[in-house]
From TrEMBL:
The active site is at 73, 146. One of its GO terms (cellular component) is cytosol. This is Catalase. One of its GO terms (biological process) is response to oxidative stress. Residues 1-44 are annotated as: Disordered. Residues 1-12 have a biased composition (Basic and acidic residues).
Length: 712
């Protein structure tokens, strides 16, 4: 499906966009403006006049351009797309967009970081939001998901505490978009329920290569209800067709300086290039009667349902195929809400989800300023809205007639309630009873088993990255007691992990003896040790990125380093081969001046050696050509070229050395490469181009990271 085809939402939005064909500049009242360069003054050099309604209108509007940024998830990137159902879920839910095979539903997706302000870097170590608005015929359905399947806390009442702890510290507003500071780790050290999420946050999942290369998870258990009223618990998953891939932490920090819009730009460019990002949409289905079959509580948002215990069934494809026309109107004003739901889907009693159901309307009121935020084009349902809600700031709808109440006879009784058979939403009739209590369920008390499961499921390089992330973060913590408490927590997950981190922090590993801590007697962390369990699933392959999709180089960015005199034929042949596999080639030269090839043609570099960096590419090619190599090796260029290569090498990327590039190769750190490094391909290798393609598809040679770093 092409973006412009069959996209009702696109048509709907078009009505609101201004076209610019030969149109004249006007005020907001439609008055044509004759001079937009000068204000109205008393004489050429005289004072400006209050009478200048054009100046005042323009400046007043400008003064009010900013709206409050989201209190969390402020920095975001959005795109339009389509969801296509490939397998009907009619046995499980009556939601039409999930039952009518082949049905295409327009969507708007917003990805975000959580902690940073709107202008912060994309590459912060953080959770990513993955919020999807499905514009279904039955109303908007929002799946407000994250790229990690669990959360820090079990109860909504702790959310403001969590967010206050991770945000910049209130006295000096430092640090921006970073969890590596005292207040975050102080809070975490006292909240053992966060440990599973901390494993995810310290893993490479928190520094994705691209928004297109990360998973999405609904986190909570939701409910599906079918036509017969049968209930299943459901967990939602998005799995990227390009696989789940991340950058190195050192690389993330450099990207934040070189291109802090790295993810936003990558998403935008991919869609502009027609490399539409795609995800498989999957569900884990659990019959209602099996609710108690697990060694954890399905209502606990700090737990996953291991895929080994309940496989993910793929039922659809999410494709993003159109960039927004206007960031503010669409990506900034889009208002998600887990409570935007449709018949066939329902909530569970997960106490985190229950709190979210309150929070999101409230936040939109404060952020968008009016209960009419649903009338903003990006938020409009494609199903027409009829109700008796009226007026309010910025009301758009002009409702005819006298009645705005129900029941009425004057308006003929309209609008009518819909029966269930007509698509009216009816909540699941769940029997609920219990004393009114403010307590945590005992079934939520095991905080370490799944943290262990996650850690044990990681490959060796992933474990090392996780250890190093903890060392980095905790080294920024100034309070020794906080560091010690975190290490004490880690000891419940893995003794080696705790020891390694402790060693680098200069603290001892002491398994926390909670009752001896100076905590309130009724603190929720007291009962822990006795509840430590072995998870039923010991290792889950789905949790390691090592096992992700590695069979494509589609949309990967390959930097070709070149100078005058490159071998036009050889370079072009490699370029064509890479592009035929879907990769994107960009030329990097000492300057932006055109580069002459040895066969007399000209190439236009996109970047100069100083305007970009290796961290912006997935792989490098050092182009062949004797004269080109000579120019790359003159003193002015040499250190830049070698820095490029050595940095890419350190970040475990694939590097290809064309013929004649021996002088570059021997001057770089790569020269001492072990023969078994499959990421370094030289002129001497057989089937070099194929080997290079395979190496790029592997994403990185993480297994050789230690060796490569030792040589750097
Ligand atoms: Fe959110 N969250 N959240 N959250 N959340 C917001 O709503 C909140 C939680 C998530 O791109 C806010 O419109 C509470 C879990 C995403 O616009 C706010 C709790 C998950 C986005 C809010 C949670 C999320 C938000 C801020 C604990 C993963 C960005 C702006 C009870 C399943 C949506 C806004 C976008 C945004 C509250 C926990 C995902 C304040 C109270 C768990 C992806 O309403």
């Amino acid at each position: 499906m092409k973006p412009e085809e069959n996209n009702e939402k696109a048509d709907q939005l078009k009505q609101y966009s201004t076209s610019n064909d030969n149109e004249k500049l006007t005020t907001n009242q439609g008055l044509k403006i004759n001079n937009n360069q000068d204000s109205l003054k008393a004489g050429e050099r005289g004072p400006s006049l209050l009478e200048d309604f054009i100046l005042r209108e323009k400046i007043t509007h400008f003064d009010h351009e900013r709206i409050p940024e989201r209190v969390v998830h402020a920095r975001g990137s959005g795109a339009h797309g389509v969801f296509k159902l490939t397998k009907s879920l009619a046995g499980y839910t009556k939601a039409k967009f999930l039952t009518e095979l082949g049905k295409e539903t327009p969507v708007f997706v917003r990805f975000s970081t959580v902690a940073g302000s709107k202008g912060s870097t994309d590459l912060a170590r953080d959770v990513r939001g993955f919020a999807v608005k499905f514009y279904t015929e039955e109303g908007n359905y929002d799946l407000v998901a994250n790229n990690m399947p669990v959360f820090f806390i079990q109860d909504a009442i702790k959310f403001p505490d969590l967010v206050h702890a991770v945000k910049p510290e209130p006295d000096n507003e430092i640090p921006q978009a970073a969890s590596a500071h005292d207040t975050f780790w102080d809070f975490i050290s006292l909240m053992p329920e966060s440990m599973h999420m901390i494993m995810w946050l310290m893993s490479d999942r928190a520094i994705p290569r691209s928004l297109r290369m990360m998973e999405g998870f609904g986190v909570h258990s939701f409910k599906f209800i079918n036509e017969e009223g049968r209930v299943h618990f459901v967990k939602f998953h998005f799995k990227p067709k390009l696989g789940v891939h991340s950058v190195a932490w050192n690389e993330a920090q450099i990207i934040s300086g070189v291109d802090s819009d790295f993810h936003k730009r990558d998403l935008w460019e991919a869609i502009e290039n027609g490399d539409y990002p795609e995800w498989d949409f999957g569900v884990q289905l659990i019959p209602e009667e099996d609710e108690d079959r697990f060694d954890f509580d399905l209502l606990d948002p700090t737990k996953i349902v291991p895929e080994e215990e309940v496989p993910v069934e793929i039922v659809g494809t999410l494709t993003l195929n159109r960039n927004p026309d206007n960031f503010f109107a669409e990506t900034e004003q889009v208002a998600f809400h887990p409570g935007h739901i449709i018949p066939g889907i329902d909530f569970t009693n997960d106490p985190l989800l229950q709190g979210r159901l309150f929070s999101y309307t409230d936040t939109q009121l404060s952020r968008l300023g009016s209960p009419n935020f649903h009338e903003i084009p990006i938020n409009r349902s494609i199903n027409t809205v009829h109700n008796n809600q009226r007026d309010g700031h910025m009301r758009q709808q002009i409702v005819k007639g006298k009645t705005s109440y129900d029941p009425n006879s004057i308006g003929g009784g309209c609008p009518f309630q819909a029966m269930m058979s007509e698509g009216g939403f009816v909540s699941q009739q769940e029997r609920v009873s219990g004393a009114k209590i403010r307590e945590r369920s005992k079934s939520f008390v095991d905080h370490y088993s799944q943290a262990k499961l996650f850690y044990n499921s990681q490959s060796t390089p992933e474990k090392e990255h996780l250890q190093n992330a903890l060392i980095f973060e905790l080294s920024k913590v100034t309070l020794p007691a906080v560091r010690e408490r975190v290490v004490g927590q880690l000891a419940y997950i893995d003794m080696f992990l705790a020891w390694r981190v402790a060693e680098k922090l200069g603290v001892e590993v002491k398994k926390l003896d909670w009752p001896n801590q100076s905590l309130p007697a009724d603190s929720n962390i007291v009962e822990l040790q006795s509840e430590e369990k072995e998870p039923k699933t010991k290792v889950s392959e789905a949790l390691s990125m090592k096992n992700t999709v590695k069979n494509t180089i589609k949309s990967r960015k390959i930097g070709f380093i070149m100078a005058n005199g490159i071998d036009g034929k050889e370079t072009n042949a490699l370029k064509i081969k890479l592009e035929s596999e879907g990769a994107r080639v960009e030329f990097i030269a000492p300057s932006l001046a055109k580069v002459r090839t040895n066969d007399g043609s000209e190439l236009t570099p996109k970047h100069s050696l100083t305007s970009t960096a290796s961290v912006c590419f997935d792989a490098l090619v050092i182009c062949s050509g004797e004269n080109s190599v000579k120019e790359l090796m003159i003193p002015e260029n040499k250190h830049l070229v070698l820095h490029f290569i050595n940095e890419a090498y350190k970040h475990c990327k694939a590097v290809y050395f064309g013929s004649d590039t021996e002088p570059v190769y021997h001057n770089s750190n790569v020269a001492s490469k072990k023969h078994e490094d499959p990421g370094i391909i030289t002129w001497a290798d057989q089937d070099a181009a194929d080997q290079f393609i395979n190496a790029i598809a592997q994403h990185r040679v993480w297994d050789l990271e230690m060796e490569r770093n030792a040589q750097s």
